[in-house]
Amino acid sequence: MQHLLTLEDLDRTSLTRLLDRAEHFRAHGAPRDLLAGRTVLTLFFEPSTRTRTSFVLAAKRLGADTLNFNLSQSSTSKGESLLDTLHTLEAMGLDALVVRHNENGMPAYLAQHANTRVSVINAGDGTHAHPTQGLLDALTIRQRRPDFENLRIVICGDIRHSRVARSDVHALHTLGVLDIRLCAPRALLPEAQAFPGCTVSEDFGGAIAGADVVVMLRIQKERMADAQFPDAADYHAHYGLDARRLALAKPDCQVLHPGPINRGIEIAPDVADGPQSRILDQVANGVATRMAVLAELLATPA
Questions:
Q1: What is the DSSP string of 100-136?
Q2: Measuring CA to CA, which residue among 119, 111, 131 is closest to residue 10?
Q3: Order of strands, edge to edge, in the sheet holding 152-156?
Q4: Among residues 172, 168, 140, 156, which one has the least CA distance to residue 286?
Q5: Model confidence band, residue 225 (pLDDT cutoffs 50, 70, 90)
Q6: What are 67's strand-pairing partners?
Q7: Torsions phi, psi of 67, nearest 5?
Q8: What is the tens place of the pLDDT at every residue in 17-48?
Q9: Of 273, 275, 248, which Cα lies nearest the Cα of 263?
Q10: Which residues does residue 42 pair with via DSSP β-bridges, in sequence order?
């Protein structure tokens, strides 16, 4: 594997190998010199807290050198093209480029036009994919419920604009989940056929009934027209996860959220901080998962 751009075409063996490696790193840590002499650069054209920080921590814990690309202080602000920036960075001897961009397909475009063997990792592109989030969500679920074939999983929120939903669905389908339910108000539902093999509904109460896992999503105002943005109070009344709705799911239902959380809109504070919440486990698993991805792409085979 040279790049990680999407989970769509990743087979079950490869996906499971990454999850196993991440689980090992989470439990036992990793050799501090595994990626000694390697250089990882984060190239983010959108804001990020969890993803960028966890990639930097992951690289450092494996012994790699890390650099953060500061967009406002770079030559792109002087008119330099993204490809010229890529080739300039490549010439400095980078081993991996972690890219977040608001345009669909930009990480794949950079991977296609790279002049060296630099590995490109998609840290989220537009509404297209967020593969490491899909991996860490799958890992978080697997830690308590490895029987994917028996799970009923609900993803609720801004499905239409969510790259997380797409990568989660790709991972879950590959791992054998047969019952994936997508729920949102009509304006935030995906286009027809965008999520084959999933059930689509506007009824959150019906969707969450008997669920083993519920993944709540943020309303992504930055990706929608004002006319699409629902009233916050009305949205919470119909699609917010509170204790009353969570009681419709199975008693041990896991609650996930990729963050950032808008408390009182998509999720109530007592649920976000409650005993069924796995949100902070997701954050911790994010570091281990990104360690696994970097090790997979950059570690010299034994």
A1: EESSTTHHHHHHHH-SS--EEEEEEETTTB-HHHHHH
A2: 131
A3: 199-201, 179-183, 152-156, 213-216, 254-256
A4: 140
A5: low
A6: 41
A7: -135, 140
A8: 999 999 999 999 999 999 999 999 999 988 88
A9: 273
A10: 68, 98
Please give the span between the terminal C-alpha atoms of the chain, in angstroms, as a whole number: 15
State how far the alpha carbon of 102 is from the alpha carbons of 44, 162, 192, 216, in Å.
9, 12, 23, 21
- The whole-model pTM stands at 0.94
Q: Dihedral of the CA atoms 28, 296, 47, 229 (nearest 10)?
A: -100
Identity at 226, one-letter amino acid code: D
Asked if residues 175 and 150 have their Cβ atoms less than 8 Å apart, the reply is no
Q: What amino acid occupies position 292?
A: A
| Residue 189: other Cβ atoms inside 10 A | 18
SS3 at position 63: coil
Written as one letter, the residue type at 65 is D
Q: What sign does the CA torsion over 234, 238, 241, 243 have?
A: positive
Q: Are 120 and 107 spatial neighbours (Cβ–Cβ below 8 Å)? A: yes
For the record, the structure tokens of 278 come out as 């796995």
